[in-house]
Request: fold
Amino acid sequence: MNILFLKVTLIPVVIALITLVARKWGNKMGGLIGSMPWTAGPILLFFILEQGKSFGILSVQGIMTGILALIAFCYCYSFVSQKVSWLPTLLLSYGVYAATALLIKHLDLNLWASYLLVISSVLLALRFFPVPTVLSTQARRLPYDIPIRMVVATLFVLLITGLASVLGPNWSGILTPFPITTSILAIFSHMLQGSNATINTLRGLVIGLLGFTTFLFLQAFLLREFSIALSFGIAFVANSFINVVASRIW
Reply:
């Protein structure tokens, strides 16, 4: 199958499904489902298909750095969204994402240290995550909002995978968890339902990062021994199990 065709069909479908889940089961569940590797998993797959399995394995270290930056993005957006509108909140959160990524990359941690730091950061973020002041109001909807979300997400994926050969595995990995789906969920919930809905969405997403991180971390080991399909399948089961347990705890 043509890889470009896969990129422009798989990602839009994923974004549409996540949006529909959030509408049916609420913002927290939408965030939790959105944290699954629907975008990062395909990006890693495209790295492997276009650059080789070794490139994909080497990118996992950068992915851990990117996830730490994603946690910082979620916390910043949730906190700042209580004060200002979506655009300055988004720009500031992107700045925090970039600063965190640069700082962690400078520390040059190994894979195991990075993984443990991510898990600890998720737990710390949940401990101090902003609390919604009121229940979310009934959602407003923009005309054609699902197609808009689908197009934006697809363009992000095309950009990141297109630059992979130039950036190399480490920086490509850092950009893999870039808040593509997260930004879309945050912006639309912020615009249409307000800060409280955004906080619920991003808190659900941060909860899901426990499984998301494990899925991507396992690829550094599974891809050395198994096929892509089996590696992704085993890690996806682990991801789903962790998400179920985490959602019951938090």
